[in-house]
Amino acid sequence: MEYDEKISCAEACYASKMKRFFGGYLIDSWLVLSVPVAYLFQYLNKSIAFFSTSYPIPDALAAAYAQYGVRFTYGLVVQECVSLALIFLYFFLTEWLAGGKSLGKYVCKTVVVDRNGNTPSVGRLALRSLCRLIPFDNLSYLFFFWSGRKLWGAWHDQISGTYVVDEALLEEWKAGNYDGSDKFGAMVGHMMRERGMEVNPGTPDDQDQNEEGERKLRVEDLYPSDDPDEQ
Asked: Residue 88: which domain range?
């Protein structure tokens, strides 16, 4: 894919589906939230009679659940309510207090930013976390796509105006070493710099000018601020 100079920082540095799967889905959604809650309520259902009591629902709906071996109980209702509350609180608090990072993002070295690569406002992060309660939202990242020059990400990304980006690419972009045209080269250059290795001067990694000797256009020039709270 070819990029023009107006591509945003977040679009140029967007994290791969693999990183989003391991960070957002496997670690955050399953290992941190779903598995502990499931084990907790499995214990409560056996220990507290109330949780194993059938919840009053229409017979037709109860029969439909029974076909899949599911018994609709008060414990199941409480579990779903607790799960939804924890999803919102976990993602909102971690991404707010840790500067756009949940536990999965720490592991996979990704971060939540706005279009310009800055930490989103509290309001944006709250909206992003609230949108996670939409059914099947946790799988919507699998279907992000490009339309023209615009990136359409996961539902909670689109609605809140946020992006999950690769930290290494973000650092290279802000240092002027990456313009969105060579993601692999930027990643290699970043790893070399981290190890104290000399980067090939023939690459754009250490240059802040284009071939005509003019200063590279940076995201700050194109988009001074994407957050109305900062204006």
From this structure: 12-174
